[in-house]
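Quick one: co-fold with calcium ion.
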Amino acid sequence: MKRRDFVAAAGAATLLTACGESKECETGSAVSTSKDVIKWSMVTTWPPGFQGLGTGAEYLAEQINKMSGGRMQVKVYGAGELVPALQVFDAVSSGSVQMGHGASYYWKGKLPAASFFSSVPFGLNAQEMNGWLLQGGGLELWQELYAPYDLIPMPGGNTDIQMAGWFNKEINSIEDIQGLKMRIPGLGGEVLKRAGGTPELIAGGEIFSALEMGRIDAAEFVGPYNDLAFGFYKAAKYYYYPGWQEPGTTLEAIINKTAMQELPEDLQAVVKAACLSANVMMLAEFSQKNSEALQTLVEQHQVEVKRLPQDVLDRFEEISEQLVVEQSQGSELAKRIYQSYIDFKAKSVEWKKISQSL
Ligand code: CA
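Sure, here it is.
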C-alpha cells in the first residue's frame, strides 16, 4: 500500500472509532463510506440481461463487488444503455468507462489478429483456449496487442463450441452451399462466401423473422441454450452441427489500464480473479444448459439434428486455414500471435487424438 493510501486509511479508521455511531459524525465526517467506494462502469456488447453472455458480465461485476468487500462497485450497462455495442472497445480505451465485456473478434476491423483471442473457424476448443491463454503464452500476446489502446484484456467467459446453425435447406454436399443465403458473421461468413454462399449480416434479434419469412435459408447464432430461447426451431427444419465457425468462443473482459493502475494491488488481484471466475462459470453454464436445451429441442420440439457432410467440412476447413493466415499479415505482432496459436493447435491435435478417444 502506498504511504498516502495508508495514511488516508489510518485516518478513516481513527475517525470511525472516534465517532462511533453518533449522528453529528455521519454528516461531519469527510470519510463517508460512499466516498471511499471505487465506482466503475462496465459497458457490454450484449443486450441487457442476455442469457449466458449478459448475465455472465453481471456475474463478473457481482464477484468484484463481493470479493472487494464492498470497496468496489461495478455497474453493468447493456449494449446501447451507455454506448452502442460496437463502441465498447473505444469507450474503455478512452477511459470514459473503466471496464467492458464483449468478444475480441468484434474488433477485427481495427485489429485482425484480435480474432485469435475469441475464436477462429476450425480453431481451438474452449479447453484449449484456456490452455493457450492462461498457460501457453496467449494472454501475454493479447495484452501486448491491446497495450497501445491502454487496455488490459482478460478471458471473461466462454460459450463452448457452438452449432453450425438452423437450415431450411438440406445440405447433402458442397453443391448445396452454392447460393445459400445464411446469417453468419465474422470469419465464418467469409469462409461461406469463398465456398460459394452468401453471408448475411443480421442482428440476433432479427434472425427469427428473417428465417421465418424466407429472407435467408439458414442462420447460425450460438448453441442449443440460446437458440432454444430465441425459438428458432419454429422457423427452421434442420439443426446442423458441428459449429466449425466457432469451436470455443472466449469472451473478453477489458479494463482501462489507468483505472487498473489506480487500484491498490489487492483490488487489482480481485478484478483479475473475478474475470477468471466468470470465465469458468460461463463455460460451466453453457455446458450444463446446452445439453439440457438439446434434449428439449429433440424430445419436445422434434428438431432434426444433422451433421454437415464431410466434404462440406473439408472444404470449409481448407478455406479457413488460408483465411486464418491472412489475419496474421498485418504486423510483426500479428505474425507472432498466429505462430503461437498454430503451434499450440498443432501439438494439441496430437494430444486430442489420444486424450479424447475414450
Ligand atoms: Ca455464433
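If it helps, Confidence is low (pLDDT under 50) at residues 1-32.
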